[in-house]
């Protein structure tokens, strides 16, 4: 029987693009044999700001049943897939706020030796996909995590073109997540599960 693997997909999404990718990541990780927790970062924006944007309000309603991420999810997980839309080429405040609450776990060594990977969305093709994922991965290095990016390890990656992680160009929210992005999410989720299992097997053999 394959070694069990726990994967936490933790994301922030305002208007729903990253939420769609997160759900796909979770589904593909489950199909690859992992136990999965899908979690969203807590909202920091005021309700008035959310209500002023119909897509934002609709996504908040549609994902109301998804639990908010907690430190326990990080302890439970063997692998963590983090998702965030870009904010001026950087990580959203909401996801960063969650990461910033993990100092105690970091000090206790609970964030090290886990697999990490990331995904993002932007309005335009050059709107910060790479810089957002690289900024996110800086945190992985501080955690002592094991970064598993998709690279160009599948022919489909030469179509979507992003070796850092699954990414989607959403326009002004009018370009829905399509097959290219979903294929990228599948490749990435399967790769995360594969290498997390291999690392767990290797560590178990050493012990």
From TrEMBL:
Oxidoreductase among keywords: yes
Location of the Flavodoxin-like domain: 7-207
Keyword Ribonucleoprotein: no
Keywords linked to the UniProt accession: Oxidoreductase
GO molecular function annotations of the record: NAD(P)H dehydrogenase (quinone) activity
Domain of life: Bacteria
Pfam families in the cross-refs: FMN_red (PF03358)
Assigned protein family: Belongs to the WrbA family.
Name of the featured protein: NAD(P)H:quinone oxidoreductase
Organism, as annotated: Streptomyces pulveraceus
């Amino acid at each position: 029987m394959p070694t069990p693997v726990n994967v936490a997909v933790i994301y922030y999404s305002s208007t729903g693009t990253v939420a769609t990718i997160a759900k796909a990541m979770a589904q593909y990780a489950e199909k690859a044999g992992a136990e999965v927790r899908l979690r969203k970062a807590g909202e920091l924006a005021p309700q008035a700001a959310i209500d002023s944007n119909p897509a934002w309000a609709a996504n908040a309603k549609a994902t109301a049943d998804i639990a908010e991420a907690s430190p326990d999810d990080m302890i439970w997980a063997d692998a963590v897939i983090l998702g965030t839309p870009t904010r001026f080429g950087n990580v959203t405040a909401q996801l960063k706020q969650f990461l910033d609450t993990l100092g105690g776990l970091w000090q206790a060594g609970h964030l090290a030796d886990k697999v990490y990977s990331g995904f993002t969305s932007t309005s335009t093709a050059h709107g910060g996909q790479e810089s957002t994922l690289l900024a996110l991965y800086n945190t992985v290095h501080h955690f002592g995590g094991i970064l598993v990016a998709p690279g160009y390890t599948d022919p489909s990656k030469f179509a979507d073109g992003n070796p850092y992680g699954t990414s989607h160009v959403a326009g002004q929210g009018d370009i829905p997540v399509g097959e290219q992005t979903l294929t990228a999410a599948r490749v990435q989720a399967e790769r995360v599960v594969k290498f997390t299992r291999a690392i767990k097997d290797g560590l178990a053999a050493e012990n």
